[in-house]
Sequence to fold (426 residues):
Amino acid sequence: MFTHSPQSFEIPYGSSSVPLQLTPNLYADVILPPETPPLPDPLHQVEQALEHPLNGFSYQSLGAGQSVAIAVNDKTRPVPHHLLLPPLLARLEALGYPPQQIKLIIATGTHTPATRQEIEASLPSGVLERYPVLSHNCDDLEQLVYLGVTSRQTPIWVNRSFYEADQRIVVGNIEPHHFMGFSGGVKSAAIGLAGRETINPNHAMLIDPLARMGEFDHNPMRQDIEEIGQRIGVHLALNTVMNRHKQIVKVFAGRPLDVMRAGMDASRQVCQIPVSHVYDLVIASPGGHPKDINLYQAQKAITHAAHIVRDGGVVLLAAACPEGSGSAAFEAFVEDVSGYEEVFRKFKQLGFRVGPHKAFQIAREAARIHLMLLSEIPPQRVQKFLLQPVPTLQEGFHEALRLFAEQPRIALMPYATNTIPIIQGD
Fold:
């Protein structure tokens, strides 16, 4: 949906929203994903997706063996585990797997391993009471097993408990990703359960022009992940596609690549919107919690919004970030830099590292446009992150207006990370 806004607007911010009042002589285009109604009975639809998997997938392939491992996303992803896991677990038990042989592993990637409290907030209580659950740690070498290298020379280190299970399953969402093309499919295991020595070389490909949102087949980073997933051997994927209200609109089960193909098509229908021109100022939000739980996650919205901002323009981001930057490695990297040119120089000197890569991504946009941030992060820290802090969204808006000699073209992107803006002719 693409409309002119009213004079007042509410921008998602954490678990609530913040107001924005436009001045009488200004208007803004509201760039929203298409309005997509949720499934009327999502739990039933999950059951149906499992009952009728894509392209003739047979559960007989899951009927042999003694153990199952399931990769589930951590707190930074809005995955509806309460709807996905009970039907999946019931089906696995019906295939003959007792609960103690079905292990759930929190796919944290390079994030801090999940605490018990965070696991309890992410998973249904009935699941925690009945099945073993553990958290991945990308730096714990005893947890990892080495599987060789990909054709792009990425070393493959993966969670040992997941790999050594007889059957391996991934559960998650398919949605646009700012450099991976799309999330979902084998990514929950290939990155979420990988070692740091796998994630660093894979993510180093983000400098490739084809490592961009919405690109799958020609995205070197995503194709590297697909190869990692094949090497691991993921047997089943259960993925949803959700609308901007975090409601399920599609559910797919089957072989991971089949699920990705169907899910990406559905995600484009839910997220893609044509845009006729670029803007001077885009006021954006990742879409609220948990997408703005920290800057590490919220930065993705900058990439989406910056795609439709002209050189010299402004992105004003509203992201609560109650957990701060979300990356100690990112903070350590920016501590002794004072501008984007220093970021580029240091990043090249040190070589690619996850955490510092967020500084590189921010600097890449800061070299072209102005970046402002409303958040709960102390202003001094925001400045170290190469962003300009603002005390309120309204004050940030007026400060941005002062950068333009003429009336600017303004857009609002309240759900930026769920929006794929396609500039006509791009």
In short: The chain has a mean pLDDT of 93. The chain has 15 helices and 21 strands. The longest strand covers residues 309-318.
